[in-house]
C-alpha cells in the first residue's frame, strides 16, 4: 500500500512565494532570479514530503499564480488579446512565457499596453480562486509551456521521482467559459481538438520516465449533464490508446461520485482517488464497482481542515477496503490537495493566539503528511516503538477533546436546547415594520443614501493597530485614536450629505477575525496562511468550541458614533454564515449546529445595539452564497439552516429597528426565494459592474423589501460621475418602485483611498438627490 500526496501548499511556510513574486512584479528581481528562488522552494517542498516518508510526491502542483492558468498556458489556450505578448516573449526564446502568463492573470497596463486580466472565480466551494479559461469556437490548442516537464526533471535531479499532476481535459474545459457569441457552441465541443495535446503531454512524461500521473477530474464528483458523461468516456478511451507504461490516477475531491460511480469506475485508467472525508459513504459502492485491475486511492486525511486525524477510525476504513480488494491495490492520501491547509503547525508559538491545549488537537500540512505515513504503518502493523507512542498520544489527545471543558459549554448547549420557534420571527411582517421604521429612523422617504460600512483604512490606522498589539500604544491611546477617526468620519459623512451614517470599522483588522477575537470558542494563528488567489492569502480563525459572546463588542463604537451626530448611524456586524464560512470549522458537530451558536452570539450583540439606541443594524453576509453545496441535491438543507441562522441573529429587534444585510459577488437567480426568507428590511449588494443585471432576480421574484443596488464599483480607484450613477438608478427605477430603493456603493471602502472616496460619494449623493427631485 503506497502513500501519496495530492498537492502541497506552494506559498511557503514564511510566505516566500509571495515575496519572490511581488518583488519580480516590482522589478526588484529579474526572471532568472525568480526561476532560481522558486526552484529552491519547490526542492524544499519535495524534500519535506520525502522526509515525511510519502511514497509518491506530486510535482506540477506548484504554481506562480494558479494551476488552472498553468494548464491554460500548457495547452496554449491563450486568448487573442495576449498573443502578441507571447511573440514578444518568444523572440527571447522562452519555453515558459512568464510575463504573458502574469499578464493573463493580472492584466497589463503600461505605456505600451492596456490589456484586461482574465476573469477569476472560486475554485469549487473553497476560498481559492482560479483564472477562468476562455474558449472560442475556432479554438486551437497547442502545447505551449514546458513547466510540467521542467518540474519533473528538476525533482528527478534532486533524487525524487514525482507523480506529476495535471487537470484533466474534461474538467479543464468545464472550468472555462465560452467567449464566442454563437449560441450552440459548447466548450466541450473542443474536446477532440484538445485531446491530442494531452496525448502528447502524457507521451512526453512517459519518455521522461514518469510512472504515475495524477489527472484531476473534480467534476466527476458533481452532477453531470449527459454530454459531459459522454465526454469523459471519449476522453479517457482516447487517452488509453497507445500508452504502455505511464499510469493514470484519476483524481476526484470535494464531493462523492454519487450517480457517476459507474462512469468513473468504468473509465480505462489505472487508479481512482476518492474523497472519503467529504463523502465517506461512497466507499462501498466504489469498492463494488471498481475494475479488478484498478488501484483505489483513499482520501482519508482532511485536506481542507486543521484537525488531527482519528487513527483508529481511519485505520478501520483502510482495513475494510483492504478486505474487499487487497492491500496492494490500495493507496492512501489526503482527501484533496493540501493547498487549502496551512503549512506547518510548529511555527505557531504564540500561546495567546493559539493555546497549547488547542494546538495539540491540530495538524497542518506537514503534520498531516506525517499522519499519513503513520497510518500506513499502523495498518501494516509496522510501527516502531516511538511511533506507537505517538499514535497513542494522538488518540488520547482526541479523546480529551471530546470531553474537554474548552470545547463544551453547558450554558450554550442549554440555551440551544431551549430555543423556541419565536426566535426565528420578527414581531410583524415587513409591511407593518416599514411604517414603524419610517417614524423611528429619520431618513428621506425616497432614495436614502448610505455606505456599506468600512471607510479607507489608511496606513496610519493600520499602524495604530500594529502599535497597540506590540504594546507601543496603550489601550487608552489606541481607543482615543479610533474615537477621533470616528468623529472625523461622522463630520465627513455629514459634509458629503449621506443619510444613514456608519462609524467606519476602523477598529477592525478583518470582518471575521475581529468578531472571532471577542467570541469564546475561537483561536487564531500567526502563520496559518492559505492561498486565496495569486499572491494573496487568508488566515482563517479556528472554531474549536461552543461559541458565545461574553461581552458586547461593537456597542461602544456605534454609540460613540451616534453621540456625535443627529443623523442615524447604522450598527455594523458580520453575519453567522460568513463567520462560519471564513473560519476553520469544528469537525465534531455539523456546521448547521456551529452556525446556530454564532447566530445567538450575534443576536446578543444586535439586542444590545438596539438597546443602546442604534436605529439601523447591518448584518453582513457576503459569504452566504459561497457556502452553497456543490451538489444541487444538498442545497436545500444548507439554505434552510443558513436562512435560519440569519433570522436567529436578526429577529430579536422591535419593528421600528431597521435590519440591513449586505452581500457582494453574488448571483441571486437560483436563491432569490431564500434571500427573501432572510426578511432583512434592506439588502445592499454589488450590481454596478453588471449594469444592474443582478437586480433582475429581485424584480422577477417581486421581492418585497427594500434594496440597495450598488451604483459605484469600489474595486477600482476610478471616480464614477453623477451622470453614470443616475443612469444606473434610472435603470433600477424602470423595474422597481422608487420607494423600495436605496443608494449605496457596491461594497465597503476599506481598500480605497480618501482622494477617490470623497468625490465618488459626493457624486453618489448628488445622484440620489437628482433622483429624489425628478421622480
Ligand atoms: N461592512 C463590510 C465593509 O464595509 C462589508 C465587507 C464585505 O462585504 N466583504 O467592509
Ligand atoms: Zn461587500
Give a brief outline of the structure.
It is built from 28 helices and 23 strands.
Mean pLDDT over all positions = 96
Rg, Å, rounded: 27 Å
Beta-strand fraction estimate: 5-15%
Number of strands: 23
Strand order of the largest sheet: 1-14-13-12-11-10-8-2
The percent range for helix content is 40-55%
Write down the overall geometry: globular
Associated small molecules:
glutamine, zinc ion
Uncertain regions spanning at least 5 consecutive residues: none
Major sheet details = 8 strands, parallel
The DSSP helix count reads 28
Kindly name the structural category: alpha/beta
Binding site for Zn(2+) 1: 664, 686, 747
Catalytic activity: 5-methyltetrahydropteroyltri-L-glutamate + L-homocysteine = tetrahydropteroyltri-L-glutamate + L-methionine
Cofactor: Zn(2+)
Protein name: 5-methyltetrahydropteroyltriglutamate--homocysteine methyltransferase
How would you sum up this structure, described in words?
It catalyses: 5-methyltetrahydropteroyltri-L-glutamate + L-homocysteine = tetrahydropteroyltri-L-glutamate + L-methionine. Residues 468-495 form a coiled coil. Pathway: Amino-acid biosynthesis; L-methionine biosynthesis via de novo pathway; L-methionine from L-homocysteine (MetE route): step 1/1. L-homocysteine binds at residues 452-454, 505, 620. L-methionine binds at residues 452-454, 505, 620. The chain is α/β, with parallel strands linked by helices and 775 residues long. The strands form 7 sheets. The chain has an 8-stranded parallel sheet with strand order 1-14-13-12-11-10-8-2. It contains 28 helices and 23 strands. Strand 21, helix 25 (672-678) and strand 22 form a beta-alpha-beta unit. Glutamine (GLN) is lined by residues 452-454, 505, 511, 572, 620, 622, 662, 664, 747-748, 750.
Amino acid at each position: 500500500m503506497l502513500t501519496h500526496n495530492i498537492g502541497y501548499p506552494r506559498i511557503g511556510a514564511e510566505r516566500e512565494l509571495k515575496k519572490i513574486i511581488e518583488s519580480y512584479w516590482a522589478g526588484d528581481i529579474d526572471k532568472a532570479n525568480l526561476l532560481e528562488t522558486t526552484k529552491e522552494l519547490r526542492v524544499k517542498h519535495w524534500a519535506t514530503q520525502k522526509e515525511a516518508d510519502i511514497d509518491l510526491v506530486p510535482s506540477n502542483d506548484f504554481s506562480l499564480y494558479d494551476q488552472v492558468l498553468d494548464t491554460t498556458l500548457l495547452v496554449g489556450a491563450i486568448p487573442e488579446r495576449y498573443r502578441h505578448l507571447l511573440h514578444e516573449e518568444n523572440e527571447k526564446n522562452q519555453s515558459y512565457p512568464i510575463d504573458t502568463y502574469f499578464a493573463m492573470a493580472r492584466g497589463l497596463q503600461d505605456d505600451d499596453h492596456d490589456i484586461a486580466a482574465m476573469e477569476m472565480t472560486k475554485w469549487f466551494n473553497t476560498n481559492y480562486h482560479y483564472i477562468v479559461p476562455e474558449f472560442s469556437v475556432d479554438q486551437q490548442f497547442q502545447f505551449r509551456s514546458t513547466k510540467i516537464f521542467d518540474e519533473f526533471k528538476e525533482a528527478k535531479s534532486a533524487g525524487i521521482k514525482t507523480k506529476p499532476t495535471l487537470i484533466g481535459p474534461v474538467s479543464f474545459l468545464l472550468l472555462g467559459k465560452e467567449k464566442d457569441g454563437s449560441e450552440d457552441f459548447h466548450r466541450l465541443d473542443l474536446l477532440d481538438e484538445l485531446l491530442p495535446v494531452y496525448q502528447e503531454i502524457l507521451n512526453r512524461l512517459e519518455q521522461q520516465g514518469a510512472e504515475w500521473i495524477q489527472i484531476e477530474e473534480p467534476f466527476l464528483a458533481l452532477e453531470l449533464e449527459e454530454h459531459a458523461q459522454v465526454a469523459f468516456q471519449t476522453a479517457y478511451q482516447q487517452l488509453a490508446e497507445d500508452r504502455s507504461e505511464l499510469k493514470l490516477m484519476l483524481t476526484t475531491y470535494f464531493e462523492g461520485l454519487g450517480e457517476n460511480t459507474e462512469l468513473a469506475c468504468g473509465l480505462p485508467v489505472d487508479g481512482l482517488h476518492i474523497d472519503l472525508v467529504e463523502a465517506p459513504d461512497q466507499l462501498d459502492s466504489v469498492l463494488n464497482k471498481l475494475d479488478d485491475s484498478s488501484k483505489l486511492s483513499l482520501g482519508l486525511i482532511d485536506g481542507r481542515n486543521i484537525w488531527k486525524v482519528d487513527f483508529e477510525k481511519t485505520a478501520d476504513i483502510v482495513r475494510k477496503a483492504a478486505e474487499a480488494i487487497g492491500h496492494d491495490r490500495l493507496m492512501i492520501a489526503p482527501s484533496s490537495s493540501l493547498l487549502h491547509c496551512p503549512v506547518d503547525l510548529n511555527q505557531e508559538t504564540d500561546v495567546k493566539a493559539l493555546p497549547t491545549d488547542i494546538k495539540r488537537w491540530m495538524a497542518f500540512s506537514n503534520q498531516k503528511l506525517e499522519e499519513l505515513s503513520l497510518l500506513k504503518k499502523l495498518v501494516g502493523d509496522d510501527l516502531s516503538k516511538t511511533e506507537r507512542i505517538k499514535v497513542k498520544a494522538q488518540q488520547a489527545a482526541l479523546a480529551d477533546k471530546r470531553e474537554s471543558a474548552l470545547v463544551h459549554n453547558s450554558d450554550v448547549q442549554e440555551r440551544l436546547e431551549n430555543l423556541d420557534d419565536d426566535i426565528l420571527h420578527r414581531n410583524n411582517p415587513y409591511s407593518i415594520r416599514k411604517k414603524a421604521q419610517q417614524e423611528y429612523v429619520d431618513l428621506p422617504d425616497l432614495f436614502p443614501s448610505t455606505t456599506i460600512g468600512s471607510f479607507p483604512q489608511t496606513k496610519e490606522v493600520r499602524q495604530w493597530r500594529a502599535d497597540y498589539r506590540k504594546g507601543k500604544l496603550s489601550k487608552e491611546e489606541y481607543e482615543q485614536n479610533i474615537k477621533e477617526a470616528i468623529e472625523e468620519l461622522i463630520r465627513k459623512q455629514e459634509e458629503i450629505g449621506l443619510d444613514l451614517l456608519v462609524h467606519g470599522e476602523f477598529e477592525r483588522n478583518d470582518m471575521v477575525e475581529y468578531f472571532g477575537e471577542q467570541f469564546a470558542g475561537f483561536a487564531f494563528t500567526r502563520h496559518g496562511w492559505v492561498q486565496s488567489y495569486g499572491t494573496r492569502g487568508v488566515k482563517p480563525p479556528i472554531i474549536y468550541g461552543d461559541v458565545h459572546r461574553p461581552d458586547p463588542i461593537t456597542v461602544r463604537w456605534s454609540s460613540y458614533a451616534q453621540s456625535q451626530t443627529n443623523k442615524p448611524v447604522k450598527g455594523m456586524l458580520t453575519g453567522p454564515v460568513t463567520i462560519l464560512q471564513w473560519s476553520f470549522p469544528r469537525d465534531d458537530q455539523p456546521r448547521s449546529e456551529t452556525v446556530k451558536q454564532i447566530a445567538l452570539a450575534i443576536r446578543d450583540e444586535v439586542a444590545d445595539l438596539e438597546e443602546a439606541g442604534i436605529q439601523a443594524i447591518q448584518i453582513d453576509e457576503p459569504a452566504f452564497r459561497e457556502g452553497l453545496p456543490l451538489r444541487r441535491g444538498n442545497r436545500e438543507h444548507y439554505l434552510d439552516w443558513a436562512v435560519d441562522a440569519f433570522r436567529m441573529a436578526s429577529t430579536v429587534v422591535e419593528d421600528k429597528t431597521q435590519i440591513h444585510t449586505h452581500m457582494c459577488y453574488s448571483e441571486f437567480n437560483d436563491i432569490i426565494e431564500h434571500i427573501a426568507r432572510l426578511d432583512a428590511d434592506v439588502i445592499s449588494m454589488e450590481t454596478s459592474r453588471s449594469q444592474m443585471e443582478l437586480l433582475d432576480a429581485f424584480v422577477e421574484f417581486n421581492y418585497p423589501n427594500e434594496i440597495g443596488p450598488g451604483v459605484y464599483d469600489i474595486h477600482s480607484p476610478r471616480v464614477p460621475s453623477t451622470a453614470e450613477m443616475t443612469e444606473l438608478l434610472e435603470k433600477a427605477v424602470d423595474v422597481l418602485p422608487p420607494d423600495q430603493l436605496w443608494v449605496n456603493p457596491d461594497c465597503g471602502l476599506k481598500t480605497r483611498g480618501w482622494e477617490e472616496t470623497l468625490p465618488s460619494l459626493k457624486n453618489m449623493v448628488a445622484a440620489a438627490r437628482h433622483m429624489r427631485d425628478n421622480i
